[in-house]
């Protein structure tokens, strides 16, 4: 039989297979330490967890220092050198930190574990919270950016809209790349000047990339948008119309916005378009606002049709007749803001005294209410 080396130090023993029952406790320790390291962001600088485990198993000290691990300072609680744990002690402390009911004397280990438990609890415990916010919406037919008798005046429109302090603007008669309006990108320009996101719905397409339609501007994030073409009855002076939809995030509460412009020369067209809009409104469960130039008076058949799914915001929150057209000699109300769905209530409506276009804008402040999960 070969003789043993002149020492009984286990490091000098010849390597060989270890019994399975001997390896299992070591594997459990390694797994526990790995879990703590992953959750707390690693060991403090200069602390070699692997060396401590090997030393704890062999009853010896590591023979070479290991380079410090760089971690964000907010995750590191540095311990004074005087209380640096002895070799092998760190591994025992980390393992103890995972075992319920076991005291962990080392503040450098205990605090990160407690902080981690608090962070996990905060992140995984979600509570419903009721959110109430005011949302001011403006609907405005801007006549392709032209001001009466003064040509293209997008800057004036931007200033007039800004003066209303609207959070959301629903626009009609908006151009993009039309020669008629100097190839301007009107939703992009107005959005940039007002600090708002924009969505555009092209309803009339002409050669050279010319587009004409509706737009939505929003101070709140626009989550998604889509344009739907409304029924079109051919005839002299008839024009394709559409319904532009955008969903915005109002401090966690999703709200649907719609901008439209109904046909001006045909009551049958307006009726067909109103019925198509009703189908969309009925299928939308969110709190919603529909605004636009309806080319119809409040008691007309198209407006009575829209009343099946939406509520005219003016009667409960505005004062007076609410006339919007024509802007310099008001005689009728054909521009509207309507609301629907739960969690939205009109608070105040007005017609700002702006005469740039042949229409005046209509403005309503709503209270929007919803339940969001706070984690």
UniProtKB/TrEMBL annotation:
Residue spans crossing the bilayer: 20-39
Annotated region (Disordered), positions in chain: 49-72
Keywords: Endonuclease, Hydrolase, Membrane, Nuclease, Transmembrane, Transmembrane helix
Ranges for domain Endonuclease/exonuclease/phosphatase: 138-359
Pfam families hit by this protein: Exo_endo_phos
GO molecular function terms attached to this record: endonuclease activity
Superkingdom of this protein's organism: Bacteria
UniProt-listed PANTHER family: CALCOFLUOR WHITE HYPERSENSITIVE PROTEIN PRECURSOR, ENDONUCLEASE_EXONUCLEASE_PHOSPHATASE DOMAIN-CONTAINING PROTEIN
Name recorded for this polypeptide: Endonuclease/exonuclease/phosphatase family protein
Protein source organism: Nocardioides kribbensis
């Amino acid at each position: 039989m070969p003789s043993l080396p002149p020492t009984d130090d286990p490091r000098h023993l010849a390597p060989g297979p270890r019994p399975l029952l001997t390896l299992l406790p070591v594997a459990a320790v390694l797994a526990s330490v790995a879990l703590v390291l992953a959750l707390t962001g690693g060991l403090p600088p200069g602390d070699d967890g692997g060396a401590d485990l090997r030393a704890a198993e062999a009853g010896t000290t590591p023979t070479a220092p290991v380079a410090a691990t760089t971690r964000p300072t907010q995750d590191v609680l540095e311990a004074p050198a005087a209380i640096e744990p002895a070799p092998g002690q760190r591994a025992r402390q980390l393992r103890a930190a995972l075992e319920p009911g076991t005291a962990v004397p080392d503040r450098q280990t205990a605090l990160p574990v407690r902080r981690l438990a608090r962070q996990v609890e905060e992140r995984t415990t979600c509570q419903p919270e009721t959110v109430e916010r005011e949302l001011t919406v403006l609907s405005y037919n801007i006549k392709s950016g032209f001001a009466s008798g003064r040509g293209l005046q997008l800057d004036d429109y931007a200033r007039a809209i800004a003066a209303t302090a609207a959070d959301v603007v629903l626009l009609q008669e908006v151009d993009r790349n039309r020669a008629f309006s100097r190839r301007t990108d009107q939703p992009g320009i107005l959005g940039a000047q007002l600090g708002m996101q924009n969505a555009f719905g092209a309803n009339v397409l002409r050669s050279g990339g010319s587009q004409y339609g509706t737009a939505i501007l929003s101070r709140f994030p626009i989550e998604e948008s889509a344009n739907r073409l409304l029924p079109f009855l051919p005839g002299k002076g008839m024009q394709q119309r559409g319904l532009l939809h955008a969903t915005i995030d109002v401090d966690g509460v999703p709200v649907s916005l719609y901008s439209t412009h109904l046909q001006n020369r045909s009551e049958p067209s307006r009726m067909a378009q109103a019925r198509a809009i009703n189908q969309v409104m009925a299928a939308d469960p969110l709190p919603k606002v529909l605004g636009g130039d309806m080319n119809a008076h409040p008691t007309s058949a198209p407006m009575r049709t829209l009343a099946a799914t939406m509520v005219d915001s003016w009667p409960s929150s505005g004062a007076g007749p609410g006339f919007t057209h024509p802007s310099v000699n008001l005689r009728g109300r054909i521009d509207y803001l309507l609301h629907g769905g739960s969690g939205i209530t009109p608070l105040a409506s007005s017609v700002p005294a702006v005469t740039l276009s042949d229409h005046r804008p209509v403005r309503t402040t709503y209270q929007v209410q919803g339940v969001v999960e706070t984690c």
